[in-house]
Amino acid sequence: MDSPISPSGSVRRHARNISHPVPQRAARGPLEAATDDPLADAPASPAISDALSDIPAEEKTSSTPRLPEPVLAHRPRPNVDLRFLQDRQLFHSVTTEDIPNAYINSQHRPPVESSLSELVQGGHFRRAAEAALRALLQSPPTAAEQIFQLLYTRLACLVLISRPDIAAAEAIPLIGLTSRGAPGSHEVVELIPWDLRILLVRLQSIGAADSGRRGIMALYALASEVRANIRLARRDEDAADVELWNARLHDLGLRVCDALVERGELETATKHLETLTDVDADELAYRKALLRLRVGDIAGTRQCAKQLQDDARRKTFEALLEVADGKHENAVTIWKALIEEYPGHEQFALNAAVSLFYTGHIAAAGDMLESLAQEVPAFPTLLFNLSTIYELCTERAPEKKLALVQQAASRQPGPATGGWEHATFEFKL
């Protein structure tokens, strides 16, 4: 399975879409610092370009919002006016009401003067979302590349702090522009970086009345556009472009599968995987095995798992199949062997603790999770499971949870595991 730390490849995979009501532009309270509100009137800053100059084009850590890739352009870019994306009424304040005080008062809290790139690199995604918005509102309306880059960072950071509802609301104007095909919209759409277009499709499915059907249709529309670009690249004999667009086409195929799974259409997702060509065989077998296991097809899971060349993934399915058969003791043995063989793979220790829990060894499961929490940066699944253990094992669960909050807030900030700050609900507070 993918690491529980973060979804692989993009923010859309296995992400938790926490449901929050999206407030209208609320009046700020008397205790809110004016400097923390990116929507507050501020003088034009000469440092916008400085805030952007250090941002890397791509991050290796999948939890960190990557900057959009440059748009492939074969002709001069049109000069467009994007002031419709700079309307303050479109955006919402991101409050700290759901952030424990241990984070608010931590010595690791970033300085006020931190640049956007420093905030992203440090995993301070809430503050990065605010900084990106401030810079976006102060950008020249015709600075398309800068505005889209900042908007992508803003939306990605909102998703990473479990506020995809706000991100979806703020993306509505651009989503509408890309889907309506209004006159003149093509000139704007062709300037939108690919990563931002993918994120817009993802946000389009959040809270949709059709349960994401339009999102799947949008992925197919993107695939048609990609195929057209592949034909153009082949005509121009541009091998680099052909390779790039082919990679994007393969990625879209996997995203369609993910979207079908989110809709609960598991059999359709399995059939869709059968139609994919030129996709890594091991990745395809892995996904098929996961889907077969999800629908309860144990024999089909075993057949797909046997095709895996990756030893760690194959042994992972051996343990999962033992769990599916109710043989948790056997699963614990396999998980512990995997922990020894592949140190640094937190999901093995996490799954071992869950299997120990189901065998009645709750104290041992708690000890394993506490040890894991001390060794690695906190991540949502670990925090939730450990908080559950506290609720089951002691009447001092609130004290234990608060101690866990203090421990997590004292760790060195970083972009892994969805960021440094964690909301109160992740600790079941």
Automatic annotation (TrEMBL):
Composition skew (Low complexity), residue ranges: 40-55
GO CC annotations on file: Golgi apparatus; TRAPP complex
Chain intervals for the UniProt region annotation (Disordered): 1-74
Database matches in SUPFAM superfamilies: TPR-like
InterPro entries associated with the record: TPR-like_helical_dom_sf
Gene3D superfamilies (UniProt xref): Tetratricopeptide repeat domain
Full protein name: Tetratricopeptide-like helical domain superfamily
